[in-house]
């Protein structure tokens, strides 16, 4: 079974999303939690971008012992020097160099020819490699690049010493089969590619980031870049908890798993949400408040009889203590009775029928029926046992 590396970029790409910025002590708290979660790489920031970012990369590099710590750099000496300085005290420093390879970016943003781009890749990767043993090269906008040129760019980075080649879907544009085709092309056309990690970095503009990342793993990617709660530029990055639990839950089919301590997923998600003040949608996969909640009577009955009927993973596996039976208008008599017993009430069958009918009427009037509402309904009918 393959081990897929998890490269967390919550503190770099994630922090680039509006309203998600963090101060130094908050970033350290998140980095420590990522270390507990056992991610393989923490991208701590973009050292050259501001004195604040430099300081946070430097402080995190010093504080983290069990993960590699990366700093992003454009393909220029000044950026690579800043990353190197900030990472000096890291136990396992990684310099992450990037340059765009798509015609659009090369012509309008970089104003460089293909040959100039290749030369920059060669020089910057070799320079970074002269400073640290672990260098990642990202071909920004790889998914919209011409595959033949992309393969030349990747070959240049591999020959210059990059140990990880990242192929981002920078604008979240492609479909899973296109990610797959790109990776297969690169694997077939780059000498020595089998000796490096192929990484993917998918954005979520079309809601495809997790699916694209998983398809990439199927095609041979051995590292996935992602963020906690999927925060990131525009519609965000691929969500770490979804990727990890998808691989873990379907590990037999994927013949792969990660090093992640999945029991820390819920805590990590809540910590980030609390720090940045961005709440998690209740229906968010894996960590949303409703991810392990059952309201419909049929589902509640099924789960009470055998959890696997409606639960494909256990709440305990992500660090929750239990699933949740929510009482609402879709709940059945069976779940209502169980709920009463939990509150300490034992009703005779005809009392239960009457209370259940009243409960259903209340559900039509109120969005959420609480345990206090239920207690009020049955308090006169039954003695507490
Ligand atoms: O989305 C992207 O292409 C990036 C790179 C800098 C890795 O964030
Ligand atoms: Zn990105």
Automatic annotation (TrEMBL):
Q: Manganese as a keyword? A: yes
Q: Which gene encodes it?
A: leuA
Give binding positions for Mn(2+): 13, 201, 203, 237
GO BP annotations of the record are: L-leucine biosynthetic process
The task this protein performs is described as:
Catalyzes the condensation of the acetyl group of acetyl-CoA with 3-methyl-2-oxobutanoate (2-ketoisovalerate) to form 3-carboxy-3-hydroxy-4-methylpentanoate (2-isopropylmalate).
Report the portion of the entire protein shown: 1 to 385 of 501
Species of provenance: Christensenella massiliensis
Q: Which reaction does it catalyse?
A: 3-methyl-2-oxobutanoate + acetyl-CoA + H2O = (2S)-2-isopropylmalate + CoA + H(+)
One annotated Gene Ontology cellular component of this protein: cytoplasm
Is-annotated flag, keyword Amino-acid biosynthesis?
yes
Describe the protein's quaternary organization and the partners it interacts with. Homodimer.
Q: Which EC numbers characterise this protein's activity in its record?
A: 2.3.3.13
| Root EC class | transferase
Write out the entry's keywords from A to Z.
Acyltransferase, Amino-acid biosynthesis, Branched-chain amino acid biosynthesis, Cytoplasm, Leucine biosynthesis, Manganese, Metal-binding, Transferase
A GO term, aspect molecular function: 2-isopropylmalate synthase activity
What this protein is called in its record is: 2-isopropylmalate synthase
> What family is reported?
Belongs to the alpha-IPM synthase/homocitrate synthase family. LeuA type 1 subfamily.
